[in-house]
Amino acid sequence: MKRVALAVLAALAFVAACTPAKKKPDEIVFWEFWPADVITPLVRQFEAENPGKHVRIEQLTWDNGRDKITAAVAAGQPPDLCELGSTYMPRFLASGALSDWSAGVADLRDSLRGWELCKVGDAIYGMPWVLGTRALFYNKTLFAKAHLDSTKPPETWDELYAACARIQQLGHGVHGYGVSLNDRQKLFKKFMPFAWGNGGEILSAGLDSSRFDSPQNVEALEFYLKLRKVGMLGLQDALDQEFKEGRLGLQISGAWLLKQIPKEAPGLRYGVALVPKPAMDRGEHASFAGGEVLVSFTGSKRKEDALRLARFLVRPANALALASSAQSVQPANVGADTAAFYRERPDQQVMIRQFATARFTPNHVEWDAIEQVIEEEVEQALYDRKSARRAVADASARIDELVGKK
Amino acid sequence: MRAYSRATAWALLSPWVLAFAVFGLYPFAFSLGASLTDYSPIRAGATRFVGLANYAQACTSREFWNALANTGWFVLGSIPFTTLAALGLALAVQPSFRGRTPFRVGFFLPSVVSVVVLSLVFKGLYAPGGSLDALLGALHLPAPAWLQDPRTALPAIMAMDVWSASGYYMIIFLAGLESIPRDLYDAARLDGAGAWARLTTITLPLLRPTLAFVLVVNTIRSLQIFAEVFVMTRGGPLGRTTTVVYYLYEQAFSRFHLGYASAVAWLLFAISLLLAVVQMRAVNAREQAVR
Amino acid sequence: MSAAFEPVRIEAPPPPWGRSLRRWLWLGPLLFTMLLPFAWMIALSLAPHAGNSFSKALRGPWDLSQYRALFAGTNVGRYLLNSAIVATLVVACNVATAAMAGWVLGRRRVPAERFWTLGVVATLMVPKQALMIPLYLVMARLHLIDTYASLVLPFAVDAFGIFLVRQFVTQLPIELEEAARVDGATDWGIFRKIILPLLQPVLAVVAIQSFLANWNSFLFPLVFVDSDRLRTLPVGLALLSQTEHSVDWGFLMAGSTLASLPVLAVFVVFQRRILSGLLAGADK
Asked: In B94-226, where does DSSP find H-type helix?
């Protein structure tokens, strides 16, 4: 018995030791977050067009992928090409770890949107691949039940409030608006559209002081708080679930619902519209914009090839392949909405139209801390610990501290 | 009487020493060193020595004290329950009875699933309109939004921790119970001692080393609670579930302030060490008193 | 002569039904509440249409599609194998080193033993999130990134097991060892023939705990291993069931249920060894 156990152990150790995991020296290492079955065909096509070049794809998890990238960069062994989310970009841009692509992408400047995500001054350190935004989702069935015109989603704050009030009155577990609680890095994207749409800002143009304490932002927060009366509070996945089950009238959410609803709630009759603006004669249909950026690192071994692979991946057909599979993002290419895929999907088209008035977040190195400050103060107001005015003022003071720091 | 060989002793200890030298020493030294600098894992430039500035920053940081307070509540609130539950379960499933094995397996089952998946399951259970609220509603009990209410979020996570850890420490107590010689109980029974007396005069005293182990290890693990918070609440609501390790993780991997995060980690180390020494002294002191 | 020192297993007569049933009465409901979250998991794995709603999942219909999907066209089989190889190696090392170091510390065989024990325990006190990057640097320098060794070597010696064995050893009566020494046995002989059998219950716990910790380990396997070929089960499952903003509940629950089975099997096999402690007569 003991001999058998020892033999098994020895065999395992042998197998383990013998399995080679050496990278082929001429492989381009690409780290990305999307499922292998979407990315692999694209990469194979790249290999076909570039004989002699091989690409090794390694998939990362959304939650912890950044940790792995960080460790690899710290150890001086970063991948050649890497996908980074727009939330991570400010710190990476400030770190000096990204490779300068200003020359290599000059000819693509006009054909892609979202360069703000990768720019520091005039230098460009990446390439936008796919973008995402937030828009207003509304339930047409509930609209009909509340005697609202389901072909005319609300365009202004007053219309939004009125529609939510009517739906809230339907009772029986139905709510009007889905107010987001502090879901880290998600609340910001659901509240700021109101603030931006009202003309509010976060930082000054030079990114050196806070502009957050403004009557426009206070107004926006007061409106957001008012929506609680005609809606329900919840975290993103709870609100999404309520919407999918047909119990939520309206909420600001993202394009991932466009993929989930047909699968999980095929009978749901819903529509997508631009985020409402303060009034017909002022403000904008503002929203949040972010996305995924392709970068290479100063420590990467095959920077030239990485750039070539990146240029390949951002081609309209390829970015579209990813966007049409994921559906939660849209290609960064200008004119993407003319593709057949989008022509057939009016809801996706709304997303793309929303990009025209969507805001990218400022590339300040402390950006994620600033976002957290805003979310925390809005949360204080949501839990009635502070008034809207106080919350906005406190947030602004804390932001000033952050941007005043080195 | 020097009846054993020092050489053999060192030889037997050597694998640990070797493993520590290769995989332990460098990371510990690095992180201790990093705590005295402004090291950032992704920054291309040079790292500056800042002395104790990171430690000072932590001690004056509202967020750090909030995280420490939350962690303290967590430890104080869950350790007694987990320890008592584990001991109780072990005592219940240790004697021979039919169906003992299925019960042992059943109580151990919560520990088997990965903590990330378990947290996802509980996130769904605790959701407003989720199964727990449905059950409470059916019993006409109040059903708060467990993870969204600042007062109930941390207790909800604590309850999940007690639920999943009891079975795990139960098997450790089981091993401890099995090592108590039977004839002690037989002698006590002959002397007329009842079940409670046997428990308090034989079982508990002889379980001291096991109890010390469970307390120390459970405390260390609870002080480092992270995955549940990451999956279920991300530190909210209103920062009530931000634990020290969650705070440290954000600083290290979101803000890339690994120097500062390392200082926080070593502050936690100091607290863990202090608590462990106190716990072992307390358990052993009673041992001396018994002798 | 040495056979007299081995613990004697005395098989107890089967317990009376009355006592058993009484125990079931008050342990049963407790067990039921403890198992409810499992019922949740399994129900979700059998009802992919229900998303993450327990009530919808209970109403059915049920099917095994998610379990089939686990293996169809995915590398889950490979991930299982990798997890099994790594976990077995780690458990073997942990048990061996815990027995060795635990005995030495428990019998105070080295000077300043308290200091050593505290040192061993202290290695558990620094959170791994703080150590992850320097450990990665070590692995990178040793060219161990993306190898099985990176998943085994750093975890081959575990302070938890050493501490547990040490505590257990402090309770063991010293007479057996002393008697054997009087008989002329060597240290190594005592360790193999007397100590190891006596340590069976606690080594069984070390095996169970070590297997469990390693099987479900996520952070380090994620960071140290890049290629799909070497991926372990928790990381593989996470990658297969993730999308940017949601989780494929049915698939993840099916995978997690499947992942629990080996740990349960290890537990069932080893927990019987916890029973083989000192029984009446062996220590006189």
From this structure: 100-112, 115-126, 131-138, 153-178, 182-190, 195-198, 204-206, 208-223
